[in-house]
Amino acid sequence: MSKNGKNTAGILAGLLAGAAAGVILGMLYAPEEGKETRKKIKNKANDLKDQAKNKYGEVSEKVKDQYGNISSTFKETANNVAHTMKDGYDKYKDQIVSKTADVVKDVEAELNDLKK
């Protein structure tokens, strides 16, 4: 995950934790019966849990998309490098074969001259 993604996740977690703490403290100091306060805390906790699940799903999808993009780009770049290297190899191989054939002809000519 990118540094920006980690920062976003940290900020999101901090905001959710702060909101939860604020809601709980507000409810504990509210002038209501304990049973009613506990019910509100439970409902609010469930709401926060659902929000956290939704945000996790969103962040998870973004990470998957980024991974797919990076993976695709890497594969494409690797294929391009491989093709470039193969093309270069083929080009230089042909040049070497040609030069080797020229050298062989020159050596054969020199040997024939020496035999005469």
TrEMBL record:
Q: Which InterPro entries match?
A: Desiccation-related_membrane (IPR052928), RRF_sf (IPR036191), YtxH (IPR024623)
**What is the source species?**
Chryseobacterium artocarpi
Keywords in alphabetical order: Membrane, Transmembrane, Transmembrane helix
- According to the record, the segments passing through the membrane are 12-30
Q: Which segment of the chain is annotated as a signal peptide?
A: none
A Pfam family annotated for this UniProt entry: YtxH
Record-given protein name: Gas vesicle protein
